[in-house]
Write a structure and sequence with these properties.
The protein is of the alpha/beta class. It is built from seven helices and nine strands. The protein has helices at residues 10-14, 41-60, 91-107, 123-137, 152-155, 170-179, 237-260; strands spanning 2-4, 22-27, 66-68, 112-117, 140-145, 193-194, 203-204, 209-210, 218-219.
Length: 263
């Protein structure tokens, strides 16, 4: 049975099979997503993903053993900190926030923790944390990526010619619209391109040869820092539903194997 962690009483929690139950911790962020999408885009996506995952998992296994932890609403957003509204932990603070949560869970006997990364900037800290916790505590901290952005069904949602779709672009904006269209202001959207990298053959903001990008690397056509990749103007709620649903479906096989994992 999939339930919200915060909804259980202490007595109910004591009855949970804590060795087999997966605690899913959605990791969001509070940061700029362009002119059109809310600061809480990653938190909104994280919350939605838990519900899409719940639906997909219960269709396969109605008794799937999982507790949904509250979304962690602030993450590592160093790359966005110069844009108004963005909030970030330092890497050390973020590591210890997640570490302390996981240690608390382990103290009560939980063995399986699934960290759902809904902001790419959180991933490096989570990767280090997973290995350290496994080594130190003997628990199993799994890492899940929330966006199946390379899946054909997802890439098919991107408008023709929108070649740089990335952070705060059409896909992420669509995902928010699938949850609450009123939060998106498409009429104020502007497209962003990685101006410093767009003509390079090898050095890119991601890939085999890269540098830690910052929002200022992404600019409008007239050279104004915009901090997003791609053109959000083609976003829609239907596209967002496809992306969220596909992203959840992609994670189901892995979660079923986590269910059966024996440390």
């Amino acid at each position: 049975m999939i339930r919200n962690y915060r909804d259980l009483t202490r007595l109910e929690m004591e009855q949970v099979n804590r060795e087999e139950t997966i605690v899913l911790i959605p990791l969001g962020a509070l940061e700029q997503h362009g002119n059109q999408a809310p600061l809480g885009t990653d938190d909104i996506i994280a919350e939605a993903m838990t519900q899409y995952l719940k639906k997909e998992l219960e269709a396969v296994d109605p008794d799937f053993p999982m507790l949904l932890f509250p979304v962690i609403p602030v993450g590592l957003s160093t790359e966005h900190k110069n844009f108004c509204g963005s909030i970030t932990f330092t890497p050390a603070t973020y590591y210890h926030v997640l570490y302390d949560i996981c240690v608390s869970l382990a103290r009560h006997g939980f063995k399986k923790i699934a960290l759902l990364v809904c902001h790419g900037g959180n991933a490096p800290v989570v990767q280090v944390l997973s290995r350290e916790l496994r080594s130190e505590l003997g628990i199993s901290p799994f890492i899940l990526s929330s966006g199946a952005f390379s899946h054909p069904d997802v890439t098919a949602t991107i408008s023709p010619g929108n070649v740089w779709d990335f952070h705060g672009g059409e896909m992420e904006t669509s995902m928010v619209m699938a949850v609450d269209p009123s939060l998106v202001k498409l009429e104020t959207s502007q497209a962003g391109i990685p101006a410093a990298f767009k003509d390079n053959k090898a050095l890119k903001p991601y890939g085999n040869v890269s540098i830690g990008w910052v929002s200022e690397d992404w600019k409008t056509e007239d050279g104004t820092p915009i901090g997003i990749g791609g053109d959000p103007s083609g976003a829609s709620a239907e596209k967002g539903r496809i992306i969220l649903e596909t992203s959840a479906k992609v994670l189901v096989p892995g979660l079923l194997e986590i269910r059966d994992w024996k440390a």
